[in-house]
């Protein structure tokens, strides 16, 4: 446990800390959104995963990670169908991140585009070429997988992870960020046009 952006957060040591998201979440759709507060504390030569969601065979479907290879310090949003080890739609952030700072990250996918928002502002977008999922997904917070030799363990703090079963608009993302930043709650005083969310409060 550590001091989070909102109350407590979970501090990942980059060695053997992660959460298992064992509950299968319904991803039978094109549209979804994911929001989270993160504070990275290490940059090295490998990728570090914030969230990894996969099918029952451990094939990757959604990856949210810091891409730290080749001296880069980017954020990666991967949507891959069918789930597996290659292909899919990749989106990278257009900014570098500073260690020991909190960032509010929002990842949005609809039937035509994928978006990355940083602190409520759209950072990058790309056209969708991959279709939506036709299965439920589960996975990990703070690592890639327990299978294989490259766990991509995250070092830093993660707080207030929300998974929405709808694509948030830019206006909703802005309200979500400002509400969270100013009033200490990710979902107070925000009305989403449709859908519900799964919430992982890391204290």
Can you describe this structure?
The structure is a single chain. The protein has 203 residues and is mainly β. It has one helix and 14 strands. Strands 1, 2, 4, 9, 10, 11, 13 and 14 form an eight-stranded antiparallel β-sheet that branches. Strands 3-12-5-6-7-8 form a six-stranded antiparallel β-sheet, with no helix packed on it. A hairpin with a 2-residue loop joins strand 10 (113-118) and strand 11.
Number of strands: 14
Count of alpha/pi helices: 1
Stretches where pLDDT is under 50 for at least 5 consecutive residues are: 185-194
For the record, give the distance between the C-alpha atoms at the N and C termini, rounded to a whole number. Answer: 6 Å
Which structural class matches the secondary elements?
mainly beta
- Helix and strand run: EEEEEEEEEEEEEHE
* Main sheet properties: 8 strands, antiparallel
Whole-number mean pLDDT: 84
Name the shape in a single word.
globular
Helix fraction, binned, reads: under 10%
Rounded to an integer in angstroms, the radius of gyration calculated over CA atoms is 15 Å
Short description:
The protein has 203 residues and is mainly beta. Helix content is 7%, strand content 47%.
Supply database-style keywords:
globular; 1 helix; 203 residues; mainly beta; 7% helix; 47% strand; eight-stranded antiparallel beta sheet; six-stranded antiparallel beta sheet
Write the layout of secondary structure elements.
Layout: E1 2-3, E2 8-13, E3 19-26, E4 32-40, E5 48-54, E6 60-67, E7 74-84, E8 89-92, E9 103-109, E10 113-118, E11 121-127, E12 136-141, E13 155-164, H1 170-183, E14 197-200
Antiparallel strand pairs: 1-2, 2-13, 3-12, 4-9, 4-13, 5-6, 5-12, 6-7, 7-8, 9-10, 10-11, 13-14
